[in-house]
């Protein structure tokens, strides 16, 4: 009878992959990933049949964590601007708390190794979060630009803000608010 797979080893492999993809890109070798996880390369392939499978599962795991953060309940009695500011703060908080995952996700998003299936799975998972942000921007932003503001500006501006906060943590509150204000005012119709 085959031994059951250890969730601890699987998570160690995902953590090691995130660390190495963040620092070396998707070209990080499976040997380095296995070594960083404290297992043999053969063990890596027991959990992930191919390197691409490992990278795709890492992509989905990071996107799942980010999406769960974004979908935590919000107060119902706040304005669209206040709700969007809460979304912004959760995005910034997640990025600051998960620096390695954020860097790995950036590498994975531009990689040709992440399949359309994985990307579609994540898009489907994020549908509710996106709908909420679209609702916050409805009536504020030009309808034909809302997708662009969400897909490009929101995340890129959050990334810039996270980098600035990391460089100047003593100015965290000011940078965080300035980033949100720039997004809100810049997206006004």
TrEMBL record:
Keywords: DNA-binding. Residues 29-48 bind DNA. Residues 7-66 form the HTH tetR-type domain. Coiled coil: none annotated. InterPro entries: Homeodomain-like_sf (IPR009057), HTH-type_TetR-like_transc_reg (IPR050109), HTH_TetR (IPR001647). GO terms for molecular function: DNA binding. The keyword DNA-binding applies. PANTHER family: HTH-TYPE TRANSCRIPTIONAL REGULATOR RUTR (PTHR30055), REGULATORY PROTEIN (PTHR30055:SF222). This is Fatty acid metabolism regulator protein. It comes from Martelella mediterranea DSM 17316.
């Amino acid at each position: 009878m085959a031994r059951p797979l250890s969730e601890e080893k699987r998570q160690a492999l995902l953590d090691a992959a995130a660390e190495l993809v963040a620092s070396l890109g998707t070209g990080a070798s499976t040997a380095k990933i296995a070594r960083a996880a404290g297992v043999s390369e053969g063990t890596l392939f027991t959990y992930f049949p191919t390197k691409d499978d490992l990278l795709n599962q890492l992509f989905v795991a990071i996107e799942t964590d980010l999406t769960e953060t974004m979908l935590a309940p919000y107060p119902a009695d706040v304005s669209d601007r206040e709700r969007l500011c809460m979304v912004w703060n959760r995005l910034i908080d997640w990025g600051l708390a998960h620096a390695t995952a954020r860097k790995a996700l950036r590498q994975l998003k531009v990689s040709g190794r992440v399949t359309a299936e994985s990307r579609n799975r994540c898009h489907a998972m994020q549908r509710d979060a996106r709908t909420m942000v679209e609702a916050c921007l409805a009536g504020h932003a030009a309808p034909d630009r809302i997708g662009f503001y969400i897909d490009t500006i929101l995340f890129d501006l959050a990334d810039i803000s996270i980098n600035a906060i990391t460089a100047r943590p003593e100015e965290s509150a000011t940078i965080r608010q300035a980033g949100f204000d720039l997004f809100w005012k810049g997206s006004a119709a």
